[in-house]
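Hi there, hope your week has been kind to you so far. No rush at all, and the record is pasted right below.
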Amino acid sequence: MKPKAGEVFPCVAEGKLHKTIAPEAQVENFSCVFKKWKGSETLHFIVAVKNVSSTDQRFKVNIFLDNGKAVGGLIPRKTKKGLIKPGQTGKFVYPIKGMDKKAKGITLVIKTMGK
């Protein structure tokens, strides 16, 4: 059953999420929501990453779905206001074009960006 629009839910069943996370990062939130994007209800990934290192960081997020679709980006998206400080959390919401249902399997990769 498809969740209602605006209702946050776990992206996949336990055991269907494969993670490769940099040691400097800690996933604070990885959840999903359906909301309107470019005229249709689309799956959005909510990603929050905490900097657990002792230096400022910028993280590269990649989300790969079992159906071949993928989405990703940088947290923070822009560096004008600086990087994520130690102990702080950065967040971004990634829409995935053409996804009107939940994914069956997901690979989440979070890396640090070079300084």
